[in-house]
Amino acid sequence: xxxxxxxxxxxxxxxxxxxxxxxxxxxxxxxxxxxxxxxxxxxxxxxxxxxxxxxxxxxxxxxxxxxxxxxxxxxxxxxxxxxxxxxxxxxxxxxxxxxxxxxxxxxxxxxxxxxxxxxxxxxxxxxxxxxxxxxxxxxxxxxxxxxxxxxxxxxxxxxxxxxxxxxxxxxxxxxxxxxxxxxxxxxxxxxxxxxxxxxxxxxxxxxxxxxxxxxxxxxxxxxxxxxxxxxxxxxxxxxxxxxxxxxxxxxxxxxxxxxxxxxxxxxxxxxxxxxxxxxxxxxxxxxxxxxxxxxxxxxxxxxxxxxxxxxxxxxxxxxxxxxxxxxxxxxxxxxxxxxxxxxxxxxxxxxxxxxxxxxxxxxxxxxxxxxxxxxxxxxxxxxxxxxxxxxxxxxxxxxxxxxxxxxxxxxxxxxxxxxxxxxxxxxxxxxxxxxxxxxxxxxxxxxxxxxxxxxxxxxxxxxxxxxxxxxxxxxxxxxxxxxxxxxxxxxxxxxxxxxxxxxxxxxxxxxxxxxxxxxxxxxxxxxxxxxxxxxxxxxxxxxxxxxxxxxxxxxxxxxxxxxxxxxxxxxxxxxxxxxxxxxxxxxxxxxxxxxxxxxxxxxxxxxxxxxxxxxxxxxxxxxxxxxxxxxxxxxxxxxxxxxxxxxxxxxxxxxxxxxxxxxxxxxxxxxxxxxxxxxxxxxxxxxxxxxxxxxxxxxxxxxxxxxxxxxxxxxxxxxxxxxxxxxxxxxxxxxxxxxxxxxxxxxxxxxxxxxxxxxxxxxxxxxxxxxxxxxxxxxxxxxxxxxxxxxxxxxxxxxxxxxxx
Length: 805
Hints:
By secondary structure, this protein is of the alpha/beta class. It has a six-stranded mixed beta sheet with strand order 6-5-18-17-16-7, with helices on both faces. Helix 1 (26-41) crosses helix 2 (43-50) and helix 8 (171-184) packs parallel to helix 27 (554-566).
């Protein structure tokens, strides 16, 4: 197998369009994942690595946050296709050392795509880019930490620094990181939750008192009915399909709510069973509701109204455990069904069929993901999902509950450990009592506000613990301009990404150990812990020799940076934390709610589950002391004539911003990514043709300001692909479409970018993809006028940062 990184970049002229698949996984998934793993790692390394993945005593998958089965119930191959891809990307034998950076100038790297950058391999040494130079150059660890310390200590205020966290950071590193940031003096701790599931955290905290889901994995297995909204498990959480297969064998029915009918929810061919290899597999969805983009709020309001009309209410639960029912009921009785049908695109009979399945169910699990969370009305939508669960008594009983499925392996754990710009006082009090200093109390900046602060000069230093910030956030041109104004940008990374070439005046890359690698920091064998989507915490310990002797662990990097910056301030024992991570776990047990005896509990095979009072005892820690049933206004986006409402999504060959390959075989796309999926009738009505190339121009006007001017954004050269979905809708891959979403287009209350509801115009173009290169696409996006011309600097709109919070 060839293990060399690709020399050429994405060639969109090779794009081929075929028919969508009607099933997921199967032998094909095994073949694809093994081919990619062998190319990246070789045969022996592949076997040694994958057999430790998601096993007791092994390491946690770098991909999604789907929980593991209990010890004794795990398959020897306890991983999915995309999990294998994630491991292969990290455990690759490809290397990016000083000689690579000497060969490639910063200017040349800027012209490369995210895919090409990520495929070059593991970064082996700390690197620095200094203002006025043309290349990254090697730097020692001590010099790097000294540079960071000098920069931070020279700031006029700690609030001029931004400390970002991706969802893959371990619990130990996250706890130490937030402790350092607060000891430094700020709460500027934006994280990837701000862009993905913040709407869930806000809605659930207000409705049930805890911003997390209320189910165990066994509840999926035991459910009578499972409702899956705005989620594509076959690509984004493939191991969920195994749990759904178990549920189906136990008699569960499944409703899936999504504009696109996704292969994984049609049929699952489990490659670990005879039926999945030589048989027809398992049918998953019993009812598909092809809801219009942004129609979920109206849909759940309609379902609630029907349950009320039929008196399919658990009155005992409602009376004992909730408040707000009568106000909600009055609102439900006044529901405008014409508005519901316009918003959802669904006939009433189909909605009634779904509501009847819920009414007849003895125990229902409600699942959702970013197809629900990334809308202006996302918080209200999640509250309506919760309302349906509450009026049915589907919280705190076996086989039932709320199941937000997080997209990254430890994003929930990072929040538990205190990575939050708005941590509550009780958490800060615990920090004070444990470490003897008063942490800052003023709320910090979330992702959107942090970008605004960088852009207007109120923030000067940006530090990222993992992730690919520039490609993950919306409004690409504004973000790139903001990052360029920073005096220092620092990225703790395993591999190259777009953020390394969109940098401040000085830039550092700090190469870090991966999950799959042995960690002997402090001269002893270390392990870390993570938390999955269902609040289960378990240990992770990699089996592989590190990619380079120069790599350091996340914990080591945080503690060393803290020592260099704080210089003994507050007496925090950073050296003890670095030498034995158990010392961090003991502090976690005394600071983090529900984490008592943390170090001892993670010693248990498979770990332990954090307490969740709504799930465990039907007690709801809201200010009302009960679960809150909320009456929400019906909210529907108005899409002008000749426009479509577009959602951004992943291809099957990617995880978040990491591009594994150039195929999305479940949707019939091969050797390319710049496509826009449109209903055939919409293609005709817009005067377009299949396979035609168009520029996507987005249009956004602040709905809270009638006098506001419309913001326009452009992303060039997308091929029109006919695809079955509700009329008036469209879909395209991110990060290619991130430039289309203005920063100020965000969810109410949560500030989550509205990446799943973008009003776009498809503008025909005579341009064609450039053979063998991506530079035209990387520079062709931007802020434009209504006629598509490039906007001058004084025309470029941007909401001031103080308006963003």
